[in-house]
Amino acid sequence: CFLQKLWKMMESRQFQSVWWSQRRKYVAINEELFKKEVLGRRGPLQIFPVWTWKSFVQQLNTYGFSKIHQDFPGSASLPKCLAEEAAAYAHSQILYYYNPSFTRQHPYLLGRCKRRVNFNQRAMNAAEMDE
């Protein structure tokens, strides 16, 4: 349900805070706008059962997403360097997350994204099986 909601949001033009990256392999999120636009919703307009950024990121991690860090090469000339620094700052407001089974070109892979079971849950399940 979480993944389907995220997919629909990314395909929708209704949301400005989340979109497919240029390569259509990464989820791009403007964190501050996402907090207002998505996590700030309550009642029947609420999309996810979480209200904080930390909880949303935990959901991403639970489904196997990894945060991707974007690096910018530096330029030798001062004007280019300043322009690149400004672009990098604007770009730093955007966070990228990747899951190999969550890409725009291959929606059929969405079924491969499985919710991870945490270590404590696995240990409890193993102990129950031993009994």
UniProtKB/TrEMBL annotation:
The keyword Protein biosynthesis is assigned to this record: no
Signal peptide: none
Keywords: DNA-binding, Nucleus, Stress response, Transcription, Transcription regulation
Localization in the cell: Nucleus
Database matches in InterPro entries: HSF_DNA-bd (IPR000232), WH-like_DNA-bd_sf (IPR036388), WH_DNA-bd_sf (IPR036390)
Pfam families: HSF_DNA-bind
Residues annotated as domain HSF-type DNA-binding: 2-116
Protein's UniProt name: Heat shock transcription factor, Y-linked
GO molecular function: DNA-binding transcription factor activity; sequence-specific DNA binding
Source species, domain of life: Eukaryota
Family assignment from sequence similarity: Belongs to the HSF family.
TM stretches of this protein: none
A Gene Ontology cellular-component term: nucleus
Claim: GTP-binding is one of the keywords in the record: no
